[in-house]
Design a protein that fits this description.
Blueprint (H helix, E strand, L loop, with lengths): L5 H21 L7 H17 L5 H15 L23 H9 L9 E2 L2 H20 L5 H33 L3 H17 L7 H18 L5 E2 L3 H4 L1 H9 L5 H14 L8 E5 L11 H13 L5 E6 L5 H11 L7 E4 H9 L5 H5 L1 E4 L3 E4 L3 E2 L10 H9 L2 H5 L3 H34 L3 H5 L4 H4 L10 E7 L3 H17 L5 H9 L5 H8 L10 H19 L8 E5 L5 H4 L29 H8 L14 E3 L7 H17 L4 E5 L3 H9 L8 E3 L4 E3 L5 H13 L2
Helix pairs in contact: 1-11, 2-3, 2-4, 3-6, 5-6, 6-7, 8-11, 11-12, 12-13, 13-27, 16-18, 21-24, 28-29
Length: 703
């Protein structure tokens, strides 16, 4: 379908203009409108001024009511979806920010998938009826307060949608002919879904979008993700296509308009397609393919797409996903069902629910609509930092062989981790429970209504706490260097190596010696393959064996978003100096010297089936290597080969280091250059210089 002209072309041009204006105004990646944000900020401020002293959940629902009443509403004849997310910048207008915080405002960290299917099934009024029925059996004041807030949140959503219906009717009155008829019908659709279950695909997609806006109004946070949209919207599209209420081209346009809307606000709204259903059968459908084709044609940055693959995935899905990857936008992320599902089951999640997983934000897995996952909540341990600190201890100095040294290191990490669980992790959970209960999000979360508890109070059916483990590849290489230099070759004592690190490896000869040790992680060396397998399994088991209060389950992933670039003020035994980046995700350091196939071969040894919170792996390839059918076949072979060996996730960047350097020196000539920076894609020229430089380094190294 041609996208350069016509309605979608105009919507695309409008978004590009808004993104450019937002980048000029704020210098950041998030596309927001300053006026919309100011109106939103004042609504939240008004609510918190009015509710001082009230329970937190009532303050939070009052903020939603004020947003519903005050939010800016604007739509034009080209719009196919009503409602703007451009109020969401993850922050508040500067003139009200400090007062909101002083008044006690808090938000949860996002990174969640809500139960959109329940909203579509019951409609707003149906959910209100369920809330009222549950209140009849509520026997304590706290439960009744929560349920009152739940109902008020749904009533506020109705008001918010009805205001859009009024605006649509006013627009219809200003138009003539077919345009007037279209917007009159649109106003009727909006009035219907303000209270009732949708009947058509267009109505259902619009209601999902309104829910997304309200979720961001409640928690202006990152990675509030759509989950398996191809599953919960497919019945509506299937019925409409069968009954010829719309054509495939019309559905394509609606999805295109939806993707363009997602370009405003939250920069990491993941949408998952493909995978298996609860019975283990392939769940790919026409909507799965339409979403991928729109992303291929539009080259959108949002939503961030994840494609679930399994041995029975249709060849057409794999081919379309590889076509999208070959566009060079960094989309999609490939996800392996056979790694993720066991990882969720390791948390006590039943098989049928584990099969119904979606990806949050970047690459973190959660069950669809009944799990509060907190996927980026835990930021300890940092393996490389812990190793450098351990090297200074008497225990490390006294180790007589590498096994003793390694066991002592793991023991120290374990002690630090358990202390963090009992203090920092529990405090974080308790803070969100006490100050940021989500009345609307709790209605759209399986378990909360039944328990009459907000999702932050362990209301969801499953309650997890993501533990982001940083520096795996760097640590493996560092331990490999210690084993070689200190314990096997005995070329220098540990104390001398530690002193060299304190001096940022100023001895160039020693640094060259460390960097030249063969068998680095990423070269498919048996020595480092075995080491990464042991380390990842021991650290993942450590996390899985721990608990927060009320049975909340920590779950591991070997990543921490961009911290490999920002947070490493120490040298490491692998030859890495302070200014050099740590390894990314579960992949190797940029100094590994491996090829794409050797990197994938090494990374498959990581304990992926224990790490449902995400084990990302990035591969950089020359764009020429993925051109045409042969190039796509090469991509397909890399993905399926890695997944057959147990890999969790992989995505591809195709931009050369030379192109990225050109974009640094002449950004005006590369304004539309997009690149995957983690689990999301972004405009390269809008990124901070350290992040740009890190991506150049990765492109040169193939990781």
């Amino acid at each position: 379908m041609a996208l350069a002209s016509g309605r979608i072309g105009r919507l695309r041009a409008r978004l590009a203009g808004r993104q450019a204006a937002a980048a000029r105004a704020s210098g950041g990646r998030v596309c927001f409108d300053a006026q919309e944000r100011a109106v939103y900020s004042r609504a939240v401020l008004r609510a918190y001024r009015e509710t001082a002293g009230q329970p937190a959940i009532l303050r939070r629902v009052r903020a939603l009511e004020c947003f519903a009443a005050d939010a800016q509403i604007a739509m034009g004849p080209d719009d196919l979806l009503a409602g703007s997310q451009a109020f969401c910048s993850f922050d508040f207008a500067p003139e009200v920010r400090d007062e909101i915080v002083r008044l006690g405002y808090a938000k949860n960290p996002g990174h969640i998938v809500h139960d959109y299917a329940a909203l579509l099934e019951y409609g707003v009024d149906g959910l209100v009826s369920r809330i009222r029925a549950r209140r009849e059996t509520a026997h304590d004041a706290e439960a009744r307060t929560a349920l009152d807030a739940f109902e008020r949140a749904m009533v506020a959503l109705t008001q918010y949608i009805e205001r859009h219906a009024e605006s649509a009717a006013m627009l219809a009155a200003s138009l003539d002919g077919e345009a007037a008829a279209e917007w009159t019908a649109r106003a009727a659709d909006l009035r219907l879904i303000s209270r009732h279950s949708p009947a058509t695909f267009g109505q259902a997609l619009q209601l999902v979008w309104f829910a997304q806006l309200f979720l961001h109004a409640e928690n202006p946070s990152a990675a509030i993700s759509f989950g398996r949209l191809d599953q919960y919207l497919w019945p509506f599209l299937s019925r409409d296509l069968e009954q010829r209420r719309l054509t495939r081209d019309t559905a394509y346009e609606l999805i295109a308009a939806f993707c363009l809307r997602c370009g405003e606000g939250d920069e990491s709204q993941n949408l998952t397609v493909g995978g298996v259903d609860a019975q283990g059968r392939d769940a790919t459908n026409t909507l799965s393919m339409l979403v991928l084709s729109v992303a291929r044609d539009l080259r959108v940055l949002q939503p961030s797409l994840s494609v679930r693959l399994h041995p029975g995935s249709p060849p057409a899905l794999v081919e379309m996903a590889c076509e999208l990857a070959a566009t060079g936008t960094g989309q999609p992320g490939f996800i392996n069902d056979e790694a993720v599902i066991p990882g969720l089951m390791a948390l006590g999640i039943p098989l049928e629910r584990a099969r119904d997983f979606a990806i949050v934000g970047c690459y973190e897995a959660t069950t669809q609509g009944d799990c509060y996952p907190n996927t980026v909540a835990g930021t300890t341990p940092v393996l490389s930092k812990a190793l450098v600190e351990y090297m200074r201890t008497a225990t490390a100095e006294c180790a007589t062989d590498f096994r003793q040294f390694l066991d002592g290191y793991v023991s120290q990490v374990a002690g630090d981790y358990r202390a963090a669980v009992a203090t920092d992790y529990q405090r974080a959970w308790d803070h969100w429970r006490d100050h940021a209960p989500s009345p609307f999000g709790s209605v759209l979360m399986g378990g909360c209504l039944e328990r009459a508890l907000p999702l932050e109070s362990v209301g969801a059916r499953f309650n997890l706490f993501g533990v982001n483990i940083l520096g795996l590849g760097t640590t493996v290489d560092s331990l490999h260097a210690i084993r070689e230099m200190v314990f096997e070759r005995r070329e220098l004592p540990l104390s001398q190596l530690t002193a060299a690190l304190d001096g940022d490896l100023a001895d160039a000869a020693l640094r060259r010696q460390l960097l030249a040790i063969p068998g680095r992680y990423g070269t498919d060396s048996p020595a480092t393959n075995l080491l990464v397998a042991e380390l990842s399994e021991r650290f993942a088991a450590l996390v899985l064996d721990s608990r927060l209060a009320h049975g909340v389950r920590p779950y591991p992933g070997f990543f921490r978003f961009t911290a490999d670039i920002w947070d490493h003020p120490y040298a490491t035994p692998d030859g890495r100096r302070v200014a050099d980046n740590l390894s990314y995700g579960c992949g190797p350091a940029t100094t590994c010297g491996g090829s794409p196939t050797s990197i994938l071969a090494s990374a498959r040894h990581v304990a992926h089936q224990l790490c449902a919170c995400g084990n990302p792996l990035a591969i950089s390839l020359p764009a020429r290597d993925v051109r045409g059918p042969e190039g796509r076949a090469r991509l397909k072979a890399l993905v399926l080969g890695y997944f057959s060996g147990g890999g969790f996730h992989v995505h591809f960047n195709l931009l050369s280091a030379a192109t990225l350097r050109e974009a640094q020196t002449a950004p005006e000539q590369h304004d539309d250059l997009t690149i995957r920076i983690s689990g999301l894609s972004a405009r390269y020229v809008g990124l901070p210089a350290p992040l740009q430089n890190a991506l150049i380094e990765r492109a040169e190294a193939g990781v």
